[in-house]
Amino acid sequence: MGKEKQNLSVYLKHFYYAVQDDILPQEKHGFYDVIFGDSSPDTIWFNLYYWSNNSTKFKSNADVIHHLNPKTKILVTLRNPRRVFIGIYSVNIEDFLRVFPRKQIFISKLEDRKQNMTAALEDIFAFLDIEPMDIEVMRRVVHMEKRAKNTHGVPDMYNKTKQLLEEFFKPFNDRLGELIGQEYNYNLYP
Q1: Domain 38-144: assigned CATH number
Q2: Where are the domains of the chain?
Q3: How far apart are alpha carbons 67 and 6 in whole angstroms?
Q4: Would residue 89 be called left, alpha or beta, if left means φ above 0 and alpha means ψ between -120 and 50 degrees?
Q5: Average pLDDT of 59-86?
Q6: What confidence tens digit (pLDDT) does each residue in 118-148 have?
Q7: Most C-beta atoms within 10 A of its C-beta, which of 68, 102, 169, 170?
Q8: Mean pLDDT taken over the chain
């Protein structure tokens, strides 16, 4: 158990500066007017504990999360896999569906959230069973500057690369549609 706690502690240290710099200064009357979470794309699948220890207890991050809190509500945001290169979503979603009931997993597409951020946030609040934001606060959140920006100047991909990625992801996208609904099948809605 000591090694498990050590790995969780190492993970939590990643948030130290965000808490110190972004959250604590926002304190108003004992409350923090801040939304905070982990949005790393590899969090859904990368499990160093399993790979480094050949664990039979924690085969996936879903197992680890369920062990820590079986009532956890999971938020997953997918994006077109040919734009991320790690979009074998069906395998990862199956891990979570194996461990958690579907009603504890909220899945959305980044493309839908970009189209209507207000509706996307309202859906998330309903899933989490929390009060919606005040209209003015919602407006500020929807229009606030986003931290993550493409500053790498990544050019558009070649058509041949796009075609190869579409062929590679096709069976995984088909399986994703079978698991959670065809509206998530990126072969049908690229």
Answers
A1: 3.40.50.300
A2: 1-37, 38-144
A3: 15
A4: alpha
A5: 82
A6: 899 999 999 988 888 888 888 887 877 665 5
A7: 169
A8: 79
